[in-house]
Amino acid sequence: xxIDTAKGVLGDATIAELxxxxxxxxxRPGDASYDQARTVWNAAHDKHPALVVRCAGTADxxxxxxxxxxxxxxxxxxxxxxxIAGFSTCEGGIVIDLSPMKGAVVDHARRRVVAQAGMTWxxxxxETQAFDLAVTGGLVSSTGISGFTLGGGVGWLLRRHGLASDxxxxxxxxxxxxxxxxxxxxxxxxxxxxxxxxxxxxGVVTSLEYQLHxxxxxxxxxxxxxxxxxxxxxxxxWRELTAGMPDELTTLVVLTTAPPLPFLPxxxxxxxxxxxxxxxxxxxxxxxxxxxxxxxxxxxxxxLMGPMPYTAMQSLLDPLWTAxxxxxxxxxxxxxxxxxxxxxxxxxxxxPTPFSEVHLHQLGGAFxxxxxxxxxxxxxxxxxxxxxxxxxxxxxxxxxxVAWARQARTEIARHGxxxxxxxxxxxxxxxxVRASYPDAVHERLVRVKDxxxxxxxxxxxxxxxxxxxx
Length: 470
Ligand code: FAD
Known about the structure:
Uridine Diphospho-n-acetylenolpyruvylglucosamine Reductase, domain 2, alpha+beta, 15 helices, 3 domains, Vanillyl-alcohol Oxidase, Chain A, domain 3, 20 strands, 5-stranded antiparallel β-sheet, globular, Uridine Diphospho-n-acetylenolpyruvylglucosamine Reductase, domain 3, binds flavin-adenine dinucleotide
């Protein structure tokens, strides 16, 4: 059966030839697994690609890239399928799906891991924690390592060890012309710089090598819930505490609606609350003194902070972030002045659904000590990253929820320099991407794009347009 693409018709023989050259599989409309293969985490993006190439290895990726180029197909690249903007699927194009590629080799003596690009954080943590090692990973274990790392990578080890991308030591990349390159500090150093914060613009990353650190297996971590009427005091005291916090401790303020879970008193279920989440990346005993003040920011409704396995903390939030809901994120790097806290509280007060939230990620520590020019991720000065999340179980009213998030972000972003984090945005608009990078960084990214993807084959991302497309 031939397939209609956005650019014309692909004949059976052409698809059969593609398939014959793969170790993996091609899924197309009409196949039993098509609906599963085309579905991404964010149900707000319900698209119908012409082909999903489920790659078994680098050779399949080369073949898929060459095929996409020769057939002039729109290309979506997929790792863990968590793109908020829906970039890992497309209408009438090809999805290069790396999710079957899940190999990892840990060199525990050198504290390095080489991981294939289809792994999730849950899978990579599983491999590295066998040696009590870890690298900064996502707060939800089903997030893919590759999209996460290429955009930056904020997690519980951020203040101790920096972003995931700060710990990337090398990557294997299939470029738009089908070459396979190793990018590291010596080989293709500009590409290596761009991969650490510039997103999926420069090629298909097939494997990532990370520096690992001793972590766990037990850590001191969890959540402390406070009532909303104490939110201003909690956030203000938290802000004061952050100035003297040890790097081992990374915290997050979550303005949310209390879920109907047994660890929270029934009378607060469904009411707005403020939660203080955090992890101490050292021994639990050493963490007690650092964590104790977090329990005294107000009068807790519930204190769920205690020793737990690192892997348990890495998946603690999973039940709240299951796939299949409609989601929109938008973000801003800010300074948490009194006025900024006002803006956060005012906007949280008008959240349109109980699932919509405002997060304040504490930055600083090792993250802030990376020189701004070392990686393409260059927002090192702000002390807080605010993420405004609109989430709804279904499509009804979702546009209104997105409008709420955009408005909230506009008000909150006034308390920073206007930059957003490319991994926390549902927007692809050029001005939003532009605002995520300082001018000199954006110009440097364009030069790397011109070198490695001059025709913008990889454009389903927070796109850095090459000079030829300007
Ligand atoms: P995908 O949708 O597979 O990929 C996203 C994009 O990345 C692709 O469109 C492509 O442009 C690019 N890409 C992916 N893989 C490759 C590759 N191998 N080669 C080239 N380009 C590639 N971010 C944080 O920093 N910290 C968090 O704690 C965090 N938590 C999250 C929790 C949830 C539930 C969700 C949905 C997102 C979260 N994010 C977080 C944001 C996350 O980092 C981004 O959505 C990221 O893009 C996800 O990567 P992925 O591989 O899962 O996604």
